[in-house]
């Protein structure tokens, strides 16, 4: 019993007097408030929950909620909600202890010692990260959500307790300072309500939406509430008439039926009015009926009876029994034109479907004894939970992780088929690439083409309900950065980013090794010290100096421009000198004799295979044969400019130690883009003739634009073309000049 309860237990009470508020508080703060709901637990489990209550009561001693009630009333209310879902003793103990680590200074080891590791893990998963230092509130929040969602992916009871906690906090939000209402309600609406929906907890989902709406927009909530109450009064007779007619029709067909009226929530009415720009009077399907029938066959038979009674609205029938929603929800939905032309929605489902529809993941605990096929309930939402762990494997940044997860919280879905008729549910707007990654990350990574319903389609094509999707893979295909612009699922986005990051890091490591070796040559050392036992202490000392964890990380940082190779090289030479390894005087003098003013020799050779670690500047678009220099940008790898480029010259003037010698390989592995401007007479078909000439000269056109001024005698055609080298470019320009209607052809000159 809490301190408040102990203090008030001796207060005299009259037989007919109402209990005082203090006495009510004491009752709510006692274990008795929970006991009645625990009849499904064994006596041993009930005793474990009682022990957790005593510990929590002691830990929260003296703490009060904003309402003035003892703080323990909150954990009890959370545990009571979990008991409604028939969660096990461990979850109820975690519900009672969920604020103990955060607010009472209780440690995780202490909880493990008293209540066992599973309970301590649940409590830890529920604990926010307020004690850590974050730069922003958003960063803190993102990290807290990541921690909670990952704990939830490992054990779904974490989120069930969290949702019970948030539901009670929303029910008592009136007691919180008003300035907190908007933030807490928005967070609930954007995060917790969608999670509840994703896990099939529809009752909790609707309540959280309704409570958030009431505190976010109190005036609109009150106005809609009055309008619905008035409409309810006007339509009571009509609703009763429909109910009587349905009951009679089912009785005549000898079908047992449990019928319940259902009303659209105020928040869903508000959303419909906002999205479709409707007035309240135009929202017709406010009322509906839920029909609970004995089995699946009865659902379809009942649908036939309803369609015989009232005319169905075209396009308003949905079969969620044959194709269940992502969160396991199953029902038949139909909207019919009832008496007086009022639209009425009907939902038909079995008792088992009803339990899943209202309680989702929690249905596993609610009905695992009563339902022989309850194992299927256990799988509800588990695919999504598993995808959280997959996303975490590829994403270490909390904000990025949360971005991926938010994408997957939208409830709308499309249902598509594999060529073998396996059904797949994906978020609305998902593309062929999302489909490929949903099947397997290997298929996603090697996707090269796709067919929908037998027709070849672009990879960015959005999927529609019922599409049969076939993905074509090729071993040489790899994820394209452009895919990030159109993929819809968090899984696909995180897999693509992970692949590109891994690739970029591997390439940057190779570039970093080249740059450090080049800087060491300038200091008189012919090569990098080996990564062997003899030099292990040296590398460890160097890593302490640079602040990197591994040699690979250091080289990657050099390749990305986060570390200056010459500074690291100087430090390395000093350390080697201490070990007795001196610079080679001959190499040193030769390097200095032939070195450029600011650029050390031992140039980095470029052949075009460097991909993301080396970028060719768009201001001057260098090609083999040009004199070039390399600039190591901050975190962007090596950027190559032509020697004469004005942008490069300004950078060198400002940041000379970041420039490195670069040179072309004798045989580059690919073509390189450059700009050309071709001035032509405005004759008929001139663009086609010029394009044909460029193609004949083996130059690929990657971009073309024309001057948009009013037509004159001549105009400039600006092309970006891919060529092998300067010799190839010269032959392309000569061919262009010989073309009819071409006045001049030249390479684009970068701005000074």
Automatic annotation (TrEMBL):
GO terms for biological process: guanosine tetraphosphate metabolic process; nucleobase-containing small molecule interconversion; response to starvation. Transmembrane segments: none annotated. InterPro entries: ACT_dom, Beta-grasp_dom_sf, HD/PDEase_dom, HD_domain, NT_sf, RelA/Spo_fam, RelA/SpoT_AH_RIS, RelA_SpoT. In eubacteria ppGpp (guanosine 3'-diphosphate 5'-diphosphate) is a mediator of the stringent response that coordinates a variety of cellular activities in response to changes in nutritional abundance. The lineage of its organism: Bacteria, Pseudomonadati, Pseudomonadota, Betaproteobacteria, Burkholderiales. GO terms for molecular function: GTP diphosphokinase activity; guanosine-3',5'-bis(diphosphate) 3'-diphosphatase activity. It comes from Variovorax paradoxus. The keyword Transferase applies. Residues 412-473 form the TGS domain. Residues 675-750 form the ACT domain. Pfam families: ACT_4, HD_4, RelA_AH_RIS, RelA_SpoT, TGS. Residues 71-170 form the HD domain. Residues 1-21 are annotated as: Disordered. Belongs to the relA/spoT family. This is GTP pyrophosphokinase. Keywords: Transferase. Its EC number is 2.7.6.5. One of its GO terms (cellular component) is plasma membrane.
């Amino acid at each position: 019993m809490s301190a408040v309860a102990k203090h008030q237990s001796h207060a005299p009470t009259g037989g007919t007097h109402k209990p005082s508020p203090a006495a009510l508080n004491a009752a709510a703060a006692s274990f008795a408030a929970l006991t009645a709901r625990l009849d499904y637990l064994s006596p041993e489990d009930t005793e474990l929950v009682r022990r957790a209550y005593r510990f929590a009561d002691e830990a929260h001693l003296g703490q009060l909620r904003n309402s003035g009630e003892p703080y323990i009333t909150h954990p009890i209310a959370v545990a009571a909600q979990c008991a409604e879902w028939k969660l096990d003793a461990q979850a109820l103990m975690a519900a009672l202890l969920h604020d103990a680590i955060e607010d009472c200074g209780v440690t995780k080891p202490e909880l493990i010692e008293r209540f066992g590791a599973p309970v301590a893990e649940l409590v830890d998963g529920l604990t926010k990260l307020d004690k850590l230092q974050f730069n922003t509130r958003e960063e803190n929040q993102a990290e807290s959500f990541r921690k909670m969602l990952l704990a939830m992916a490992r054990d779904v009871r974490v989120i069930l307790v969290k949702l019970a906690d948030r539901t009670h906090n929303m029910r008592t939000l009136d007691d919180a300072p008003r300035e907190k209402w908007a933030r807490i309600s928005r967070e609930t609406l954007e995060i917790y309500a969608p999670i509840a929906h994703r896990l099939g907890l529809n009752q909790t989902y609707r309540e959280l939406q309704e409570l958030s709406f009431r505190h976010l927009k109190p005036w609109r909530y009150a106005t809609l509430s009055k309008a619905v109450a008035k409409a309810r009064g006007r339509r009571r007779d009509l609703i009763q008439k429909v109910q009587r007619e349905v009951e009679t029709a089912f009785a005549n067909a000898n079908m047992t039926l449990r019928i319940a009226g259902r009303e659209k929530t105020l928040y869903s009415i508000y959303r419909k009015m906002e999205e479709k720009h409707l007035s309240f009077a135009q929202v017709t399907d406010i009322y509906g009926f839920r029909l609970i029938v004995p089995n699946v066959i009865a659902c379809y038979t009942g649908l036939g009876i309803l369609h015989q009674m009232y005319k169905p609205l075209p396009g308003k029938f949905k079969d969620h029994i044959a194709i269940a929603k992502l969160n396991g929800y199953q029902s038949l939905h139909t909207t019919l034109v009832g008496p007086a032309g009022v639209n009425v929605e009907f939902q038909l489902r079995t008792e088992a479907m009803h339990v899943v529809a209202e309680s989702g993941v929690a249905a596993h605990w609610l009905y695992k004894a009563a339902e022989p096929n309850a194992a299927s309930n256990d799988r509800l939402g588990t695919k999504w939970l598993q995808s959280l762990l997959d996303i975490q494997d590829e994403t270490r940044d909390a904000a990025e992780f949360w971005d991926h997860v938010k994408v997957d919280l939208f409830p709308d879905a499309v249902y598509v088929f594999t060529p073998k008729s396996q059904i797949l549910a994906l978020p609305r707007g998902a593309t062929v690439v999302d489909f490929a990654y949903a099947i397997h990350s290997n298929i996603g990574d090697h996707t090269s083409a796709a067919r929908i319903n037998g027709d070849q389609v672009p990879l960015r094509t959005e999927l529609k309900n019922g599409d049969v999707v076939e993905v074509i893979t090729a071993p040489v295909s790899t994820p394209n950065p452009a895919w990030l612009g159109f993929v819809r699922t968090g899984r696909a986005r995180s897999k693509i980013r992970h692949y590109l990051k891994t690739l970029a890091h591997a390439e940057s490591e190779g570039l970093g090794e080249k740059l450090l070796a080049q800087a060491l040559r300038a200091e008189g050392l012919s090569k990098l010290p080996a990564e062997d036992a003899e030099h292990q202490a040296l590398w460890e000392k160097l890593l302490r100096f640079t602040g990197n964890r591994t040699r690979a990380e250091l080289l990657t940082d050099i390749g990305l421009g986060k570390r200056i190779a010459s500074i690291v090289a100087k430090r390395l030479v000093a350390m080697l000198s201490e070990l007795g390894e001196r610079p080679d005087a001959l190499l040193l003098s030769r390097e200095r004799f032939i070195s450029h003013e600011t650029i050390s020799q031992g140039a980095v050779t470029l052949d075009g295979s460097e991909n993301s670690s080396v970028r060719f500047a768009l201001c001057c678009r260098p090609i083999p044969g040009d004199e070039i220099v390399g600039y190591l940008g901050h975190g962007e790898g090596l950027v190559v400019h032509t020697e004469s480029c004005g942008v490069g010259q300004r950078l060198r003037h400002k940041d000379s130690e970041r420039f490195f010698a670069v040179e072309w390989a004798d045989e580059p592995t690919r073509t390189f883009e450059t700009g050309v401007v071709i001035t032509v007479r405005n004759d008929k078909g001139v663009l086609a003739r010029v394009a044909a000439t460029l193609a004949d000269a083996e130059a690929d056109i990657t971009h073309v634009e024309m001057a948009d001024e009013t037509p004159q005698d001549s105009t400039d055609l600006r092309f970006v073309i891919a060529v092998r080298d300067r010799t190839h470019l010269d032959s392309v320009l000569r061919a262009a000049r010989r073309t009819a209607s071409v006045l001049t052809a030249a390479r684009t000159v970068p701005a000074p």
